[in-house]
Design a protein that fits this description.
Blueprint: E1 11-17, E2 20-25, E3 28-36, H1 39-54, E4 70-74, E5 93-99, E6 118-122, E7 125-133, H2 138-154, E8 157-159, E9 164-167, E10 179-188
Antiparallel strand pairs: 1-2, 2-7, 3-5, 3-6, 4-5, 4-9, 7-10, 8-10, 9-10
Length: 191
């Protein structure tokens, strides 16, 4: 990775089928906040809160490098079904997440000054993912989520958590060149 490259979470590809991958992610630390609204508005509000933290609104007044992706996960507690087909609504709560750069630990990261921003360790996870381009609208994420869920069912994977909607690029990048993903935590289905 060059000095100017944006760090992304470390993973190993377990299986690949075109734009769909199953990845084993390494453990990581995230800064997250919960916001309410439609996916786009919640993403903007959450981004502002998290950016405020990494740009120095923390106990050390330290800047923390930006990473990719920014993820949005519906945070309303819902009953798990397989596949996970529920579509978030306009009034849902969303958890918006930044991954912390790998050089930081829970002991070395500055504490957020804003109590709405929380730091959390995430254990390694197996994730089914699908990549697509575009502006990252809810309709596009829903369509890719359904495509990914069909693939998971056909290839022996069960969802173990809610889908995450990830955006990797700045909003000023032209939509056809933006990288988006739907990520779903999975486990191999039992026979």
């Amino acid at each position: 990775m060059s000095a100017s490259a944006t760090e992304e979470p470390a993973f190993e590809t377990v299986e690949q089928d075109g734009k769909i991958e199953v990845r084993q992610y390494a453990p990581l630390i995230v800064a997250e906040t919960e916001v309410t609204g439609d996916m786009r508005d919640a993403g903007r509000a959450g981004f502002r809160l998290l950016a405020d933290y990494i740009f120095g609104n923390n106990t050390a007044r330290s800047e923390i490098a930006m990473t990719a992706p920014v993820t949005r996960t519906p945070s309303r507690k819902i009953e798990m079904t397989a596949p996970v087909t529920r579509v978030p609504t306009e009034t849902d709560s969303w958890t918006v997440t930044f991954t912390m750069p790998s050089k930081w630990t829970m002991e070395t990261l500055p504490v957020p000054n804003n109590p709405a921003v929380k730091l959390r360790e995430v254990p390694g996870e197996l994730m089914a993912t699908i990549r697509f381009s575009g502006s990252g609208q809810m309709k596009a994420h829903k369509a890719r989520q359904e495509e990914l869920e069909r693939w998971m069912a056909a290839h022996g994977y069960e969802a173990t958590g809610a889908p995450r909607y990830a955006g990797y690029d700045a909003p000023w990048k032209p939509a056809p060149f933006r990288r988006n993903e739907v990520l779903i935590p999975v486990k191999p289905a039992q026979d």
